[in-house]
């Protein structure tokens, strides 16, 4: 048996050979990837991201974000990298960076920002992740602890030792996460100052996102669902966090000009006309209805169900998430039958209670996969496209408790009518100059945002929960 003492030198050798100088701190970090490998990884990941997450087809907006990002990147610790900034066509509140200088911000986040300085704060934070090689350091830590676990398991003969080491590695990575996020905030504030922006825009963004996150969680709780927030200290720390205040204050000392740029008007003009919420390319959710103009598709869901439109699946569930129905698509040869498509999809699983149906331009079949966790499945074929449904439940059944709802969704499949096409038009961000006597309550009555219109307008303009309008100011409205 190999002694644990004989493994220790191997682990030490691993740690020593995996050290490299951090370009930000000048200290040695544990990494197992060269810069060339980092850049290659970033290029590969970026190509995959852009296959799965479409970008906004607005060249002017993309160029604006790229320009702001480049101003910051030029002042960063790794200004030799070729940074690429892109706007993702998604209503989600998110931004992220890949190793090597590939940065993405969702248009959903752009809608809630109110100045170029706030945009710069988000981009600066993500640049900080790149310059400090956070992605590389996290991956190296995972690789290192995984190898350590394998060595310990091999040396001791105790299988659980490897699992324990991997758990330790996961805890280390998650622990570093908070420090890395704070470091990225500090670096972002520094790059803001050096590029002529207000470093305390970092705090503004945290306030915006905390408000949006609080409202979203209140709404989600009322609907019995969960909500995902933007990662990092932007979402998890209050603006009065002492360490955050300190890094922002340190950045203030680096300002190169007495006039620090805010750029509110420039930013608002840049995002005017941007799609708000769902886009036609991804499909539009209106209440309990789903419309997709490019696919010529309309669906209707039961009252109170929550519809979640994702790039690879259209998912809807009951408010308590006890049951859900998912819709995916796949290409099929012309002339394919719905029964054959469904049989191929479910494989060797037995089908019962099969039923065929048809509509304008399509044929369909639906059946049940029996068992303790029975599922309702269906395939609808139209031309070379197959629309595949799976309805399932968790917890107590039987399927009959939910099957009428599943069947109602499947049978609602239809091509768009003229009225559907009108309802399927996207909403856009528009600018409105406030007049004397205007109020959020009044503007909400004219808004298409529904019962939460007033709260949404306040959030979009940084006035949630009770800010008031000022005559002459530019306001974001949704039309």
Automatic annotation (TrEMBL):
It holds the Pfam family Peptidase_M48. GO terms for molecular function: metal ion binding; metalloendopeptidase activity. InterPro entries: Mito/Outer_Membr_Metalloprot, Peptidase_M48. The keyword Hydrolase applies. Its cofactor is Zn(2+). One of its GO terms (biological process) is proteolysis involved in protein catabolic process. Residues 61-248 form the Peptidase M48 domain. GO terms for cellular component: membrane. Coiled coil: none annotated. Keywords: Hydrolase, Metal-binding, Metalloprotease, Protease, Zinc. The keyword Mitochondrion does not apply. This is Peptidase M48 domain-containing protein. It comes from marine sediment metagenome.
């Amino acid at each position: 048996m190999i002694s644990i003492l004989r493994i220790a030198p191997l682990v030490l050798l691993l740690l020593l050979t995996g050290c490299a100088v951090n370009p930000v701190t000048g200290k040695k970090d544990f990494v197992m990837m060269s810069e060339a490998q980092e850049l290659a990884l970033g290029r590969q990941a970026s190509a995959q991201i852009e296959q799965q997450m479409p970008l906004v087809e607005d060249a002017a907006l993309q160029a604006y974000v790229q320009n702001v990002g480049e101003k910051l990147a030029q002042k960063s610790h790794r200004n030799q990298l070729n940074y690429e900034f892109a706007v993702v066509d998604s209503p989600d509140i998110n931004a992220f960076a890949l190793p090597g200088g590939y940065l993405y911000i969702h248009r959903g986040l752009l809608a809630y920002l109110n100045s170029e300085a706030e945009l710069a704060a988000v981009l600066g934070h993500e640049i900080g992740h790149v310059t400090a090689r956070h992605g590389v350091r996290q991956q190296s830590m995972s690789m290192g602890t995984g190898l350590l676990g394998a060595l310990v398991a091999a040396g001791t003969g105790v299988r659980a030792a490897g699992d324990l080491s991997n758990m330790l590695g996961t805890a280390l990575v998650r622990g570093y996460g908070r420090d890395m996020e704070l470091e990225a905030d500090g670096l972002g504030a520094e790059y803001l100052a050096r590029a002529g922006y207000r470093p305390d825009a970092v705090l503004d963004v945290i306030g915006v996102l905390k408000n949006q996150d609080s409202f979203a969680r209140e709404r989600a709780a009322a609907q019995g669902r969960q909500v995902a927030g933007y990662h990092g200290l932007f979402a998890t720390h209050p603006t009065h966090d002492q360490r955050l205040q300190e890094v922002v204050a340190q950045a203030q000392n680096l300002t190169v000009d007495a006039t620090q740029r805010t750029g509110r008007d420039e930013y608002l003009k840049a995002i005017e006309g941007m799609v708000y919420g769902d886009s036609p390319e991804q499909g539009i959710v209106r209440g309990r209805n789903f419309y997709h103009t490019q696919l010529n598709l309309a669906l209707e869901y039961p009252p109170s169900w929550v519809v979640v439109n994702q790039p690879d699946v259209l998912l809807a569930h009951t408010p308590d998430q006890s049951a859900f129905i998912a819709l995916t698509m796949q290409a099929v040869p012309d002339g394919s039958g719905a029964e054959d498509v469904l049989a191929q999809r479910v494989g060797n699983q037995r089908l019962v209670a099969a039923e065929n149906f048809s509509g304008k331009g399509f044929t369909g079949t639906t059946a049940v996969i029996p068992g303790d966790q029975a599922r309702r499945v269906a395939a609808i074929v139209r031309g070379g496209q197959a629309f595949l449904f799976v309805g399932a439940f968790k917890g107590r059944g039987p399927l009959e408790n939910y099957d009428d709802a599943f069947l109602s969704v499947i049978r609602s499949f239809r091509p768009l009518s003229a009225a559907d096409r009108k309802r399927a038009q996207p909403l856009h961000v528009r600018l409105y100059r406030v007049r004397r006597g205007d109020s959020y309550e009044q503007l909400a009555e004219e808004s298409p945002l529904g019962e939460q219109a007033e709260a949404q307008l306040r959030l979009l303009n940084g006035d949630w929960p009770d800010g008031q309008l000022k005559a002459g100011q530019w306001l974001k409205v949704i039309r």
